[in-house]
Amino acid sequence: MNHRRALRAAVTIAVTGALAAGMTMTLTSTASAGTTLRASAAEKGRYFGAAVATGKLSTSVYATILNREFNSVVAENEMKWDATEPQQGRFSYTGGDRLVSHAQANGMSVRGHALLWHQQQPGWAQGMSGSALRNAAINHVTQVATHFRGKIHSWDVVNEAFADGGSGGRRDSNLQRTGNDWIEAAFRAARAADPGAKLCYNDYNTDGINAKSTGIYNMVRDFKSRGVPIDCVGFQSHLGTSLAGDYQANLQRFADLGVDVQITELDVMTGGNQANIFGAVTRACMNVSRCTGITVWGVRDCDSWRGSDNALLFDCNGNKKAAYTNVLNALNAGPAIPTDPPTDPPTDPPTDPPTTPPPGTGGCSASVSLNSWTGGFVATVKVTAGSAGTNGWNVGVTLASGASVTNTWSATASGSTGTVRFTNVDYNGRLGAGQVTEFGFQGTGSGAGITPTCTAS
Ligand code: 9MR
């Protein structure tokens, strides 16, 4: 990150100057003096975000605060299932695209919220169950993550799947009733569709070490141990008048599993403690090196879903509240995310840009990784060019009886049942010797016995 490099350079100059003047100093103090949330967070290698309703972007007070103070946005509602797939198979991205454009024009990253959730499902999905719902849900993940591919910093792949109360188990929902593996199926489909996005699990009432957060912790630990692609956990943090004493310790125990953590929907009940709680949450995040950002769930008090709670950082006229000052001070006082240790300069000579290989005589090979559930599957196929490279490739698979391909990415399918052939698309056909590319497809029925064979041209 450039700003981190700039910060490091500034610190180096300061230290050099101090040593030249015969002073001693240490680098433990990282206090800075940013004057906006976004600048102060960025100086510490983090983002500071807000939930946005795109209809308000044309309100000047709102847009002025958003653009000045925040460097990350999340759609409060416009990327949810009911908004993006109002009828099955008919996708609508108007609000989401508008938010992405606004973010890109204003140097903001975008959090995607949320691919699957038991609430705000379109009516057609609410009425579905079993493998029909599972297939529809995975198709939704694939389509939406593909549409926004390359534009989303982090996706809330699954939202609020755990039960409140002391069970520590999953919440009952139509999605849960498709089988306990629905969450991992969603994460695998999201990874296949947008390999560059961080994939998060997001929930509320997880503000300390409690039965619910421990249930989620156990799921994340299991996913990490089995290679299910999860990168981050979001802690919504819709807070009342006190903060759990082990809030930071809870973030830290997740970080210790090897995932990033983020505060994703912060708002706090108004009252004497509001400003203190906002400050304490910010300090907790700053003290956890894998806490990469904070998002507040709206801009001004009157933008909040919590109505008269006045739960945010700006009043309805756009004035900064005491809570704002506490957050800004905590960002400025906190440590920066440690930068990666400097990597050694490469010793190998830089590789030449790929040149057009001669017509392939060395063939190609293909292998498949399958994510299956009762009634459906997602196949990710790795194509490796042989010694002569490829100008194009074609992969054949024979599906089990009754199975059919419903969706393909990074290749073009011919046929959908029996023997199906997948041909490269224009950007991934030319491979140098040994070079690898991936494509994927989703199917209904059984994925058993899929053995891809590759032919190069
Ligand atoms: O703020 C959102 C509100 O406008 C919607 O009506 C509501 C519908 O369920 O969802 C709100 O956002 C929720 C978020 O998507 C998930 N976590 C809880 C948030 C507050 O309810």
From TrEMBL:
Keywords, in A-Z order: Carbohydrate metabolism, Glycosidase, Hydrolase, Polysaccharide degradation, Signal, Xylan degradation
Keyword hit for Signal: yes
Superkingdom of source: Bacteria
CBM2 domain boundaries: 357-457
SMART domains: CBD_II (SM00637), Glyco_10 (SM00633)
Signal peptide location: 1-20
Record domain GH10: where: 31-330
Name of the top EC class for this enzyme: hydrolase
Pfam families: CBM_2 (PF00553), Glyco_hydro_10 (PF00331)
EC number: 3.2.1.8
InterPro entries: CBD2, CBM2/CBM3_carb-bd_dom_sf, CBM2_carb-bd_dom_sf, GH, GH10, GH10_AS, GH10_dom
Region listing for Disordered, in residue ranges: 333-363
Reactions that this protein is recorded to catalyse: Endohydrolysis of (1->4)-beta-D-xylosidic linkages in xylans
SUPFAM superfamilies (alphabetical): (Trans)glycosidases (SSF51445), Carbohydrate-binding domain (SSF49384)
PANTHER family: BETA-XYLANASE, GLYCOSYL HYDROLASE
Family: Belongs to the glycosyl hydrolase 10 (cellulase F) family.
Name of the protein: Beta-xylanase
Protein's organism: Micromonospora noduli
Highest classification ranks of the organism: Bacteria, Bacillati, Actinomycetota, Actinomycetes, Micromonosporales
